[in-house]
Amino acid sequence: xxxxSDHDAATxxxxxCSETDPPVAHKWRSWLAPALVLMAGLIIYxxxxxxxxxxxxxxxxxxxxxxxxxxxxPLDLYTFIGEGERATLLxxxxxxxxxxxxxxxxxxxxxxxxxxxxxxxxxxDDPLPLHLHSLLWWGATVLAxxxxxxxxxxxxxxxxxxxIFALAPCHALPLAWxxxxxxxxxxxxxxxxxxxxxxxxxxxxxxxxxxxxxxxSLSLLGGExxxxxxGYILTLAIAARGVALQRRxxxxxxxxxxxxxxxxxxxxxxxxTAGSGFYTDPFGxxxxxxxxxxxxxxxxxxxxxxxxxxxALDQKTPAWxxxxxxxxxxxxxxxxxxxxxxxxxxxxxxxxxxxxxGSFLALVPVLAVQPSPRLVGASMVGIAATVALVLDQAWxxxxxxxxxTRGAEFVGLFAVGLGFFHLVHGPVxxxxxxxxxxxxxxxxxxxxxxxxxxxxxxxxxxxxVMRTSGSAFFMPxxxxxxxxxxxxxxxxxxxxxxxxxxxxxxALELVVPEDQALFPEGLGNxxxxxxxxxxxxxTVSVPGMRVKVLKRGPQGPRVVRFETDVDLDxxxxxxxxxxxxxxxxxxAPGFGKPFPP
Length: 597
Prior knowledge:
Number of domains: 2
Oligomer: single chain
Protein name: Glycosyltransferase RgtA/B/C/D-like domain-containing protein
Keywords: Membrane, Transmembrane, Transmembrane helix
Number of strands: 13
Organism: Chondromyces crocatus
Region (Disordered): 1-22, 577-597
Transmembrane segments: 31-49, 155-176, 220-239, 251-269, 319-340, 352-369, 375-395, 407-425
Strand order of the largest sheet: 8-9-10-7-6-13
Strand content: 5-15%
């Protein structure tokens, strides 16, 4: 059935537009299909749900137990480093000696923060019930996405899209990492707001604008991930040309209004990031944000379209490889998607276009962070819809014996590739990622408790960490059941292989190979931005210790001298290895000792 006008093309529900699709058969299908998808997700994500505390989860537990060095309100748990707290955190060793003097990491996520607070108050400190809470939010996100798919696609591709979205690897880390639950919260309410806008476009009932306004506000209170959904809201307003301009602007303002209020409150209260190479605030450092955006965008696009895990592409991936992936991807996707979209009727083509465009715009807000599959959750809504349309056309033509042309053959091969990545590789990657998070979090917890058992009094211990790959920054909060950190926790190096040279009872030099540095500079360094580097002159002083960079290499400081106020042998020493964190001893005066990763 072909619409009679552009207005009809924009307002008719496309689930009724194609006579080639079978009608929605029986009532049981309306609940059986999503139930089966959710059950499949439960199986695939079960390892992630069984993970222990992970990364920032230990900080939240410590804050809520009252053992963190500084206090937080229930609405402010995502303030990790405030401007007036750096000295306290540096003295306790929660910040390493190389931390940027302007370091700030504060996220405005009051709703997500309140839910974390309620979790610990009502469910205690056992991670499993808290992970089950996150699983409920994943289910809500899937159902909200399914509603969007049903609204703008026909029945069969809507089902494909729901499966692809539900089982994507981007959900594994937010399920294993309680602190990342805000991704589900913001996305759920954002998609509900988008659904209300679609209803308003179709029906013109102003109460839908009220619903959109409320859901948009809740999405923003969940966190900045809400701005990724804003990409779809913007592309819908532009694409729905058959809808009256007043309706489109009203729907758009139902998100834009709360978004402006959110940004104003965020700025007034001093939220945001500064001095970190891991986070790049687009408002505080716009040029740095723009400089890194292309590399981050290509990485995230590859993560989303190819269902990759977090290790396939990283900051060490050569630029030429990313360029090759981008050029090849644009060519293949452009040709394949164009052919599929051209075969759609007008209403479905309009919806397909704004969903695809929205999937690209959804990445813009998360370009402020080092790339990770967890960041493409919102983008996966449009990716899943596009892949579903490709699969539907290719499989439907094959099933009905349609005439084969070169274009159809290309779409068929294109569909085989996308089907493999999203229906085979994606779910398997999700399960493997979840299992990895489960195992690594369990090893981390066991290693922390084993290290604490070797300390006479963990609460009063002064610990020196010879080297870490990164997890030791969270280790002090995992040592005890009440998440209380030791009196002092000093991390000397975040690197690979390091050689320790004992220059005296209280003096130690650490040396790394020419192609390494004692800590990463620039991208990936949570505690120092690329704009500030430690030179050869001067000394960094922290309570109880003085640090001097003796030699720099191409990657950063590679020979550093540490002098402490007490003998090195009087302090507890630890080092992170590949699979555990263990007690070590420094070399004797006048000797050296290697510490491999």
